[in-house]
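== Sequence entry ==
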Amino acid sequence: MKSSLRAKRMARNHRRMQSTSKLNLVSLMDIFTILVFFLMVNSGDVEVLQSDKDILLPESVAEQRPDQTLLIKISESDVIVQGRAIASVADILASDDNAIKTLDTELKYLAERKPLLTDLEKEKGRAVTIMGDKNIPYKLLKRVMATCAQADYRDISLAVNALPKMDEQRFIDANSAQTSVEGS
């Protein structure tokens, strides 16, 4: 028997509604590919040093990013090189010697493990980053830096918390306001 156009249309719609829908993966793959490239490009912008809850870093508006170098942490109680406690701050401050012997020994040991120097390291010295609490005495920081220089770690960087960039006029206004308050 011949079916009517309406019956054919209803049968066609009934078959279409019973079949499972298909997911178009091509556009989904395009989105994930773009997302992966975006994350790869933007992942290298931030340089984060391993923070320590005992060390409160000073703040700075410096724009230069730190390099991956030997890390010396100075907390209120210890001097730590690459995660290993080297000396006590109280012992260092009690000593009259300008250099810290245990730190000097450790730095020379680490230098022996990497004996080949690049041309830049021959000119400037080996690189080191000092991560010191903002409340440590200057005398202690000076001794640590002198010991580093004595062990041929002369390219010294100080770790700081980066502040958001201030435009030049706001920086000048902030400094003049602070000066006028101190002068009053």
Notes: The domain at 59-162 is CATH 3.30.420 (Nucleotidyltransferase; domain 5).
